[in-house]
Specification:
- The protein is of the alpha+beta class.
- It contains 29 helices and 31 strands.
- Strands 23-24-26-27-28-29-30-31 form an 8-stranded mixed beta barrel, surrounded by 4 helices. A 6-stranded antiparallel β-sheet has the order 7-6-11-10-9-8, sandwiched between helices.
- Strand 21 (about 585-590), helix 18 and strand 22 (about 620) form a beta-alpha-beta unit.
- Helix 16 (about 510-530) packs across helix 17 (about 555-570).
- The chain is elongated.
- It starts with about 60 loop residues before the first helix and ends in a 16-residue tail after the last strand.
Length: about 900
């Protein structure tokens, strides 16, 4: 039956699967069903020569045959390959209360008790894994009144002429009151039809002995003599047969007041039981029947043979192989249930080894891993190699003598190991014994695969898929473990939180694939820069964490680790042919001083990290007073969108002054936030939030609008001052930048010469090819371009030569000390000379003294900005 739709692990799980005689070669399909399109209540016609699980011959069922099946107290069923009922006799209604017609088409698992659902699946998995062609088990089935009855299910596989599984047929027996002796439907059909039909005894596939009412033997078939190993003679009393047959387990005896014979005579119905035969004349004392020639027989006592009340028949069938197969199947099913029950793989391997030893009565059994034997050139290595290469169990031989069986654990090309069972002396192995070893190996393979899948799932649940580092969940787990250790030994721990600087520019300009390459390289460097006891995690985006579980020197140890991390990141990262410089801001929190739980420590490290980023100091240790600033930043971030749309942004203007004439030649627009609570907020406190979010576009558009509106006002008043506006890296590579600028110029009616765009050197160099395209388009539109913060990036002179820019703005870090530091002086002079040689104007930022202003004028610098020349002020305060 299929469990499709019921069990996600089983796409097609038949109730019984055809077996393969792996020692003697593939077995032919023993069931076929060539008729199609019949009434769904009609079971298939079994072809002559197709045996049931007990080896009996099924016969054709016509209308009268269906009447016989409907008269049985056992449920006779058939399913399709999907596990849905296609035939049920009337006993189904008797046992369950459900109507037959209404039940057809429903799935057999719909009736299994929920508590036994997994056990049923485990049994069927064992059947499939073992390649058995029949199964037998006891379960609770639901009845129409909501109760459950305990039933015994026996089923065998049905196949198409091509050998494909087409369904299952069998019986369901109500064993609620202990009725455990009923027979399979194949036995009922064979015994009732063949015997009552008067078929000559010698032609039956089972042994038949007919007695009269005095229990004297009338006749026997040759099969009886072969089964018993002795010849029964006409006229001998039943006691002779009863002497040879002993009840199996708690089964009923032949004779006695409540024996099979008396019960059959009393009820007029066939009686069935399992017995053991112990015969000194067993033809194969060392055979599979067991020591001393003990064999398992099925006996059926059938009264009123041939319609004559004076005759009673005994039908004997050797079911030794069947009982052994059931025993092996039950052992595999039990092992499968243990595997599904969560037993660890090492324990399951040990139990499997012991199970094979006991079940097959072999002294040696082991699981051998191929990796351990790869270099060995001995018989053991040969056995492993042969088993790994075969899809069927292989016989372990000494010379030509068979000693054991070896089976691959796993599929072709993915063999995990080999299960080998053997003894010291030669012995024959039946096909079902080899099947059993393979079934155990299959259960182990499934358990190993599932364990590997579960470990992979656990790994994925605790690790970042991009970098392989621990994720936030795993980090919190490790922090909790380290905190418990801290409480015991009193040694502090440190948590470092790092955020990459300007990583969003890389992602936005080079694409996410390049960004992923950078993140993977950063992760690798963090691993190398930290010790094996350190946990390195990626918390998401460009944020990483480093846990030092032991920091005896507190902040000193954490700062030393941060220094190693920053040194590891200092080396350039090559993404394709483009070298990139990546740095990070690191925040440090210590336990137990800053927190005693993972959440608090992460939050404190996050506060310190943002402080390091805000102050551009690279590393900062958590300080409680920074928390208030952090809350304020969160408040600003939450209100920025409404500030942009609600008119809370204002512009202040700082003059650009011609150093030779002292005349203001242009102004730079600098945005401020007129916050209703915090007052005038500087751009450094909110612009980075916009650049890291989707607010950078509306912010840029708003600044352009305000700047050009003010320029329009000045121009209308006769003051022709060009206005410079800063453009972030994200906007430089935004496809809408040019159209946005042109739309604002058109709206205000300003000429392109009234606007200047300032682009940082680092923004240009992130993606120089794209930057050159955009800057060229802006230049063709008549807009002046300045490269801001020049000297802090890694500009290629070739790109600087080819870029259509107009001005270079020397970064204030070189200008502030140009009069006192010779190196700064040399750099500034070189930049001025370079710019002039490239026909560019030079603007110096950060001029704060007359001394510096004079020096720059003497070096030939064209323009300057700084507090000495003019502070950023509202437009009304800008001096004429």
């Amino acid at each position: 039956m299929s469990l499709q739709g019921h069990n996600p692990d089983a796409a097609m799980l038949p109730l019984c699967a055809g077996r393969q005689d792996v020692v003697g070669g593939p077995a032919r399909s023993r069931h076929s069903n060539s008729r199609h399109g019949r009434d769904v209540r009609e079971p298939p016609v079994a072809q002559r020569g197709n045996a049931t699980p007990d080896g009996l011959m099924p016969v054709a069922i016509d209308g009268s045959g269906r009447g016989v099946l409907d008269s049985l107290t056992e449920v006779v069923f058939q399913t399709d390959a999907e596990g849905r009922w296609t035939y049920l006799n009337q006993a189904w209604t008797t046992v369950t209360g459900f109507d037959v017609i209404a039940s057809l088409g429903s799935h057999f698992l719909d009736y299994v008790h929920p508590d036994e659902y997994d056990q049923t699946i485990a049994l069927f998995m064992a059947v499939v894994a073992g390649g058995f062609d029949h199964c037998r088990h006891v379960a609770r089935y639901r009845t129409s009144d909501g109760a459950y009855r305990r039933v015994e299910i026996r089923a065998n596989v049905l196949r198409t002429p091509d050998g494909e599984v087409s369904g299952n047929s069998g019986t369901i027996i109500d064993v609620t009151r202990g009725r455990l002796g009923a027979e399979t439907v194949g036995e009922h059909m064979a015994l009732l039809e063949l015997v009552s039909g008067g078929t000559p005894a010698d032609e039956l596939p089972v042994g038949v002995a007919v007695y009269d009412r005095t229990l004297g033997l009338r006749r026997t078939s040759r099969v009886v003599d072969r089964l018993l190993g002795e010849r029964l003679r006409a006229g001998e009393p039943l006691d002779r047969l009863g002497f040879l047959l002993r009840p199996r387990g708690e089964g009923a005896a032949l004779d006695g007041e409540w024996g099979l014979v008396a019960t059959a005579a009393r009820t007029g119905r066939p009686q069935h039981g399992d017995v053991n035969l112990v015969s000194r004349a067993d033809p194969d004392p060392g055979g599979p029947g067991g020591p001393g020639g003990e064999r398992a027989l099925r006996v059926s006592v059938i009264p009123n043979v041939e319609g004559r009340q004076e005759l009673i028949a005994f039908v004997l069938q050797d079911v030794t192989d069947l009982r052994r197969a059931e025993r092996l199947q039950a052992a595999v099913a039990q092992l499968g249930q243990r595997a599904l029950g969560g037993m660890t793989v090492p324990d399951l391997l040990a139990e499997a080894v012991q199970l094979v030893r006991v079940t097959l009565d072999l002294p040696e059994c082991a699981v051998l891993e191929p990796v351990e034997q790869a270099e060995r050139a001995d018989p053991v290595a040969a056995v492993i190699a042969a088993a790994l290469a075969s899809d069927r169990p292989t016989v372990v031989r000494h010379g030509t003598a068979p000693l054991g069986v070896a089976a691959r654990i796993g599929t072709a090309g993915r063999g995990h190991a080999v299960l080998v069972a053997h003894g010291p002396y030669p012995r024959a192995f039946a096909a079902d014994e080899a099947d059993f070893v393979q079934s155990v190996a299959n259960v182990l393979a499934a358990a190993i695969e599932r364990d590997g899948a579960e470990r992979e799932i656990r790994h994925q649940a605790l690790h970042d898929p991009l970098t392989g580092l621990a994720n936030r969940v795993f980090l919190h787990k490790r922090i909790s473990e380290a905190l418990r250790a801290t409480e015991i030994d009193g040694v502090a721990l440190a948590l470092l939180l790092m955020d990459l600087d300007r990583f969003k520019e890389i992602n936005d300009t080079l694409g996410h694939s390049a960004g992923d390459d950078v993140l993977r390289e950063v992760a690798a460097r963090l691993r190398r820069a930290t010790g094996p006891a350190t946990t390195v995690a990626r918390l998401g985006g460009d944020e990483f964490a480093i846990l030092l579980p032991s920091a005896p020197r507190g902040a000193a140890d954490a700062l030393a680790a941060a220094s190693r991390v920053r040194a590891a990141l200092a080396e350039r990262i090559d993404v394709g042919a483009l070298p990139l410089s990546v740095d990070g801001s690191i925040g440090i929190a210590l336990a137990p001083a800053d927190g005693r739980d993972p959440g608090t420590l992460v939050r404190c490290a996050d506060v310190a990290m943002y402080r390091a980023k805000q102050l551009s100091v690279g590393v900062a240790v958590y300080a409680p007073d920074a928390d208030q600033n952090r809350r304020e930043r969160l408040e600003l971030l939450g209100g920025l969108r409404s500030a942009i749309a609600g008119g809370q942004l204002v512009l202040h203007y700082q003059p650009k002054v011609d150093l030779r004439t002292g005349r203001t030649t242009a102004v730079e627009a600098l945005v401020r936030w007129q916050h209703p609570t915090h007052g005038l907020v500087e751009p450094g406190r909110f612009v980075p939030f916009a650049e890291q979010s989707n607010l950078v576009r509306p912010l840029t558009r708003r600044v352009l609008m305000l700047a050009l509106d003010q320029a329009r006002s000045w121009w209308d008043a006769g003051r022709l001052l060009p206005v410079a506006v800063n453009v972030s890296a994200r906007m430089l590579h935004d496809a809408e930048l040019l159209s946005t600028v042109q739309a604002e110029l058109e709206r205000t009616g300003m000429p392109p010469q009234a606007l200047e765009l300032e682009l940082t050197e680092s923004a240009v160099m992130v993606n120089t090819r794209n930057a050159m395209t955009v800057i060229t388009q802006l230049g063709r539109a008549g807009i002046r371009i300045s490269v801001d913060d020049f000297g802090t990036g890694y500009s290629s002179l070739a790109y600087l030569r080819d870029l259509p820019v107009h001005d270079l703005k020397i970064d204030k870090s070189f200008v502030l000390n140009v009069a006192r530091h010779p190196k700064d002086f040399s750099i500034v002079r070189s930049i001025i000379d370079l710019a002039h040689n490239l026909d560019l104007r030079v603007v110096a930022e950060g001029i704060e003294s007359d001394e510096v202003c004079t020096l720059l004028r003497d070096l030939g610098c064209d323009e300057g900005q700084g507090f000495f020349l003019g502070y950023p002020v509202p437009p009304a305060d800008l001096a004429a």
